[in-house]
């Protein structure tokens, strides 16, 4: 199987070190268009779509494999193997932060650093010691509405994620992206995302990590960033001025600058 075709891989840039941008739930590589070009001068920039998303090969979709985040991590592993990449920088948005961590844990010899944008190791609250942001009923309701009403859930989730009322086009783009997903794939990916618990994967991870957290992020609240900062030994937590859950789309300049600072300072 041609992995590069399967995952709709796009490569650009003039540098030798690879930086891979991994999109979040319900999105595709197009969501990086305001950030990734800024790295073309000094890096080999790699964009891709997870199988089941964007312009990936839907014939390659395996319901069993993609019923958990490890299946999506395998996409990244196979991409790095296919291109024989080393010293890779992984940039993951939202659920891809944990997908990238899982991939890096499986192939530590290939990965150098991680950038996690609005990460969360668990979206469900686990009282009394963990705040994830969602109650079980919230997730059950979301999964139910995905099953019954594609436009309805896409509109709801886009509103929760965007949180930038001065940028209505952002919510509209997210809603269109969510609606473009095949409904069974959308539900399975949602289950893999919102029911996952990756807290146990944090403690032994020793790669340098940048944690970018936004203001007023309903999906990954402040407590989540603080939890990650405590449990990732080589992490740097930065509270952004950006609001919402998609700063690479809503505040691309700040996002780009913070990533560049991290890459320069952690050399």
Automatic annotation (TrEMBL):
<dbReference type="Pfam" id="PF00561">
    <property type="entry name" value="Abhydrolase_1"/>
</dbReference>
<protein>
    <submittedName>
        <fullName>Alpha/beta hydrolase</fullName>
    </submittedName>
</protein>
<feature type="domain" description="AB hydrolase-1">
    <location>
        <begin position="18"/>
        <end position="252"/>
    </location>
</feature>
<dbReference type="InterPro" id="IPR000073">
    <property type="entry name" value="AB_hydrolase_1"/>
</dbReference>
<comment type="similarity">
    <text>Belongs to the AB hydrolase superfamily.</text>
</comment>
<dbReference type="GO" id="GO:0016787">
    <property type="term" value="F:hydrolase activity"/>
</dbReference>
<dbReference type="InterPro" id="IPR029058">
    <property type="entry name" value="AB_hydrolase_fold"/>
</dbReference>
<keyword id="KW-0378">Hydrolase</keyword>
């Amino acid at each position: 199987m041609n992995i590069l075709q399967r995952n709709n891989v796009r490569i650009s840039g003039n540098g030798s070190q690879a930086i891979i941008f991994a999109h979040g739930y319900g999105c595709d590589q197009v969501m990086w268009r305001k950030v990734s070009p800024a790295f073309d001068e000094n890096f080999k920039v790699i964009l891709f779509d997870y199988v089941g998303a964007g312009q990936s090969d839907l014939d390659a979709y395996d319901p069993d494999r993609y019923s958990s985040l490890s299946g999506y991590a395998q996409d990244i592993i196979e991409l790095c193997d296919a291109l024989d990449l080393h010293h890779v920088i992984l940039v993951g948005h939202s659920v891809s932060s944990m997908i990238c961590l899982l991939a890096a844990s499986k192939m530590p010899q290939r990965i150098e650093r991680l950038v996690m944008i609005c990460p969360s190791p668990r979206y469900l609250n686990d009282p009394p010691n963990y705040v994830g942001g969602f109650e079980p009923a919230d997730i059950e309701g979301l999964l139910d509405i995905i099953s019954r009403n594609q436009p309805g859930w896409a509109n709801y989730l886009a509103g929760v994620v965007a949180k930038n009322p001065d940028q209505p086009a952002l919510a509209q783009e997210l809603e269109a992206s969510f609606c473009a997903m095949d409904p069974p794939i959308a539900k399975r990916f949602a289950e893999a995302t919102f029911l996952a618990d990756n807290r146990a994967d944090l403690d032994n991870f020793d790669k340098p990590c940048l944690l970018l957290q936004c203001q007023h992020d309903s999906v990954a609240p402040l407590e989540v960033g603080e939890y990650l900062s405590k449990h990732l030994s080589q992490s740097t937590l930065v509270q952004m001025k950006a609001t919402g859950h998609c700063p690479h789309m809503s505040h691309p300049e700040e996002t780009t600058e913070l990533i560049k600072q991290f890459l320069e300072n952690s050399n």
